[in-house]
Design goal:
152 residues; alpha+beta; Ubiquitin-like (UB roll); 2 domains; five-stranded mixed beta sheet; 5 helices; globular; binds FE2/S2 (inorganic) cluster
Amino acid sequence: MTTLSVNGNTVTVKSEPDTPLLWVLRDELKLTGTKYGCGVAQCGACTVHLDGLPRRSCVAPVGQLEGGEVTTIEGLSNRQIKALQEAWAALDVPQCGYCQSGQLMTAAALLAEIPKPTDADIDAAMAGNVCRCATYVRIRAAIHLAADTMEG
Ligand code: FES
Ligand code: FES
């Protein structure tokens, strides 16, 4: 059993220690906003925050996260994600939507670290988040819009 914080709640999970966090979240805790894409840390669909930083939950054995603070798309409520969600809606970013929770988690971490990112900052931070619908141009525009909103 592993005890960790998920979205501000202390939980003790029964999954085996080598179970990837992704499956603990989805199967044991029923937090299905975090998606499975590749399972090998190559697509970013499964991105959550661990102790405030983006982490690929598909390759994070839960047994190594004892005492950690995990935040998922369901629990993130800081000013970065609020500005991003508004920008995402204003610019109609999602297409099929599958990759978008991972995109938003990575973008929120970027804005927490760099409140006014350049195109290069955005491209570097988002490079590991794949979108099969190729919404990259709108994602970049929406991150700039969210940054402007936060600045104002
Ligand atoms: S499912 Fe984790 S990076 Fe693709
Ligand atoms: S919106 Fe379809 S995979 Fe990104």
